[in-house]
Every structure is written in C-alpha cells, then in structure tokens.
Amino acid sequence: MNIGYLQETLSSITEVKPLGKTAEVNGVLCHIIGLVRYGDILRLAALQYDDEFAERAEAAEIAELNGLPEKPETNRERLRGDRSLDMTNIFHAVPVALH
After folding, report:
1. Helices first, then strands: H and E counts in the chain
2. C-alpha dihedral over 88, 91, 93, 97, to 10 degrees?
3. Domain residue spans of the chain
4. How far is CA 4 from the centre of its chain?
5. Whole-angstrom distance between the N-terminal and C-terminal Cα of the chain?
6. Using alpha carbons only, what angle is made at residue 46 by residues 97 and 24, rounded to the nearest 5 degrees?
7. Which tens digit of pLDDT belongs to each residue from 17-70?
8. Distance CA 68, CA 74 (A)
9. Closest Cα partner for 42 from 79, 92, 1, 96?
10. d(Cα 70, Cα 64) in Å, to the nearest integer?
11. Mean pLDDT of 80-92
C-alpha cells in the first residue's frame, strides 16, 4: 500500500458512523466497528475472532515448525475433506456485492 492509494481511498469516504458493538455468534466473537458510506454504497466494518480457528491454526503452525506429523485424520475427515483450516463465517447469509 502506498500513500497515493490511501489518500484516494480516504477521499472517497462520504460518511462514517462508529457503532462499537460486540456480539458472540456461534462461538465467534464479532466486534462491529461501524458503517462506512462511499457515495451510495454502504459497507459494514467488522472484526471477527474465532477461538477454535485460532487454536487449530496455532497447532498446525507449531507442528509445521517442529516437523511433527499432523494429527492423524479420521475416515470421516478424509471422506468429507475436512483438512482445511477454514474460519467460520458468521456473515454467510449477508449478500456481498462485488465491484
């Protein structure tokens, strides 16, 4: 990121409404920072923290750094393909417009 890009992005912001609310949904901590309006486009700014995901990612990183074999997969995990470290998306029902 450079200064020009940052100035361009900030100059296009029409309005900012800070909210500062925190909620826990399905074990995922979500902090709603606020709303940002770019002309007629409104965006929600939020931070998510998934404790289970953080623990799995940390365990995988430690195993990789120490050269330890990963936890053996169960047949169910192997069949379902549950090997990835996907974080829970609590906003899965919210439509996302791609520009």
Report:
1. 3, 3
2. -120
3. 1-49, 50-85
4. 26
5. 19
6. 120
7. 999 999 887 778 889 899 999 888 888 888 888 888 888 888 878 877 887 666
8. 18
9. 96
10. 8
11. 65
